Amino acid sequence: MTGGWLARRWYYTPRSHRAYSVRQVSPGDRRLLAEFALELSRIATERELVAVRELSTLIFDRLLATGIHDSIGFVALENTAAGDRVVGICAYAAAGPEHSNFGVAVSAGFREEQVGRTLLATLVRHAKRVGITRLCGEICWSNRAMHRLATSLGFAIELVARDRKLRRVVLALR
Q1: In this structure, how many other beta carbons lie within 10 angstroms of the beta carbon of residue 18?
Q2: Is 50 exceeded by the pLDDT of residue 19?
Q3: What is the reported pLDDT for 40?
Q4: What whole-number distance in Å separates Cα of residue 35 and Cα of residue 37?
Q5: By C-alpha distance, which of 149, 153, 146, 159 is closest to 171?
Q6: Does any domain span residue 97?
Q7: Mean pLDDT of 55-80
Q8: What pLDDT sits at residue 1?
Q9: Number of structural domains found in the chain
Q10: CA dist 48 to 41, 52, 69, 83, 154, Å?
Q11: Of 41, 83, 84, 133, which shows the fewest CB atoms inside 10 Å?
Q12: At what angle do helices 30-43 and 46-57 cross, to 10 degrees?
């Protein structure tokens, strides 16, 4: 963070032509992220609630609360008359010396607008830059949109032995 502001990159959604920005998560985002997590938990199915809880733990317990330097997140923000509103988030935290687990979530109104692709591509670029060798995450087998996104970015999809309804997505970065 330089000069008290965070650099943003601006994007436009291909279908609805709405503007949104992407920047690194900062400690001042707590309220916005809490509102986003609450919105996600309201619309999530029972199976998706597990993923929402895991991502919330990653963001609030690892990224914001402790300030651990082995985790980072990026947030997609829509600028509204009432101020910024989180429409997506992607984050990772170290799970080993050179391996990190990640999570991504996008607001229902932005799911077919390339926001998830922008966030995940940003996260992958950052992970490569800091020397992470593998990114791993778990997704529900029925989440076909995430399957397509992950494979288009080079992730391999593997079965999860402990739960037939989950898939592990893995990307080797070196």
Answers
A1: 15
A2: yes
A3: 85
A4: 6
A5: 153
A6: yes
A7: 80
A8: 36
A9: 1
A10: 8, 6, 28, 28, 24
A11: 83
A12: 170
